[in-house]
Amino acid sequence: MIKRSIPYLILFLAAACSKKTSGGGNGGGGGNTTTVTATVYGNTISRPDTNTHVRFFVDLDANASKDVSVSYTTQDSTAKAGVDYTAVTGTLTIKAGANQGFVDVPVMGDSLRQSQQVFHLVLSNPVNCTLGAAMAAAVINNDGTYLPTDNTGYTTPASYQGYTLTWSDEFNTGNQLDLTRWNFEQGGSGWGNQELENYTNRIQNCFLSQGNLVIEARQESYGGNNYTSARIDTYNKENVTYGRIDIRAKLPVSKGMWPALWMLGTSINNGTAWPACGESDIMELVGSAPNQVTGSIHWLMGSGSEGTFNNNYDLASGQNFSQAFHVFSMIWTSDSVTYLVDDQPYVKASYAVNVTSGNNPFNSPFFFIFNVAVGGNWPGPPDATTVFPQHMFVDYVRVFSKN
């Protein structure tokens, strides 16, 4: 993961020293006291992916004639201690002859995808100085692309004997999808399944974080829909015929969610309608069955109706597909398609046995589609138990060709 260097946040807290001047205007004696008022200056910090800190500077308007000290403490606003930053309390001393000191406050990496946040540093108990405005705000701008997740779970090797890695995306560069590899599909028309979301190309719905692709389904009004999500494909950027495909992912499993890792025949964009183009569903999950995924092939039968061959894979009782990463694989040959979860085969479709009616589309190029649908004919709508946002994390997709 590329880490970004972040500049210090400089917030000037100008503390005021009392200065005495003596003189004798018109030949007389006497003196007067001039008090300088403190001024507070603010700034912002762009929140990084890892912990950093903000630096508050305390400025005196003149060099101190004696040691100056002030007490300081942090104060929550929309940023919360223990979640967004580490609370600090103490005393700052500025030595005689100096006019500046500073306080560093640790800021935690953003794991909440929040909007702009604020907390304060408050000064009190001045010694050998007076305070005017004694509070300054630290403003944290979150870029909305830091969403870490536990990386535990099943993984597969980066190479196999008898195969060559011909294409992959590890999602570990930058924070946005590589558009030389992927396309965004957009819109909220239901996508033939009465889906409820509007698919967008916004960073709110699709981004990279900590080496993962994240597709985020949100409950919000957008383009006439009440939900948003993302749907991406590799059409004309990675079209595949045969080989082994590994996709490591963690899935949303709440009611109404419908994540899918699948493929369509490229001929769908060349005048061949679905299902004649062929569809290969490496993984689909409906939120009402959080421990079960389905693998399927679809094609056009000689009768003109849709042909389907599929099977389910179930995790052990008490487990679900949001708790850890699993690897969803496809081994595709000129004779068959096999789907696996964590290297365990659960669907094997033989063309000679299972695709005997209609034209076989599974010996032609296909492209990838990754999406998270909200609602639709199969999962039904979300309900009161569905907490948004929902996330699908994809660690990698790898395509291996047989030698």
Tell me about this structure.
Helix content is 1%, strand content 47%. The chain contains 1 helix and 28 strands. It folds into 2 domains: 10-141, Sandwich (Immunoglobulin-like); 163-402, Sandwich (Jelly Rolls). Mean pLDDT is 87; it is low at 1-40. The chain is mainly beta and 403 residues long. Strands 11, 13, 14, 15, 16, 19, 24, 25, 26 and 28 form a 10-stranded mixed beta sheet that branches. Strands 12, 17, 18, 20, 21, 22, 23 and 27 form an 8-stranded antiparallel beta sheet that branches. The protein has one helix at residues 351-354, and strands at 10-15, 18-22, 31-35, 43-46, 52-60, 68-76, 89-94, 100-107, 117-127, 135-141, 163-169, 183-185, 197-199, 206-209, 212-222, 225-229, 231-233, 239-240, 243-250, 257-265, 279-284, 292-300, 306-314, 326-332, 336-341, 344-350, 366-374, 390-402. β25 and β26 form a beta hairpin. The two termini are 31 Å apart.
How would you summarize the topology of this molecule?
Elements (H helix, E strand, L loop, with lengths): L9 E6 L2 E5 L8 E5 L7 E4 L5 E9 L7 E9 L12 E6 L5 E8 L9 E11 L7 E7 L21 E7 L13 E3 L11 E3 L6 E4 L2 E11 L2 E5 L1 E3 L5 E2 L2 E8 L6 E9 L13 E6 L7 E9 L5 E9 L11 E7 L3 E6 L2 E7 H4 L11 E9 L15 E13 L1
Q: What oligomeric arrangement do these chains adopt? A: single chain
Distance between the termini: 31 Å
- Main beta-sheet strand count, sense and barrel state: 10 strands, mixed
CATH C-level label of the largest domain:
Mainly Beta
Number of DSSP strands? 28
Which class do the helix and strand fractions yield?
mainly beta
Q: Give the CATH architecture of the largest domain.
A: Sandwich
Count of domains:
2
Order of helices and strands: EEEEEEEEEEEEEEEEEEEEEEEEEEHEE
Classify the beta-strand content into a percent band.
Answer: over 45%
Task: Identify the overall geometry.
Answer: elongated
Tally the helices. 1
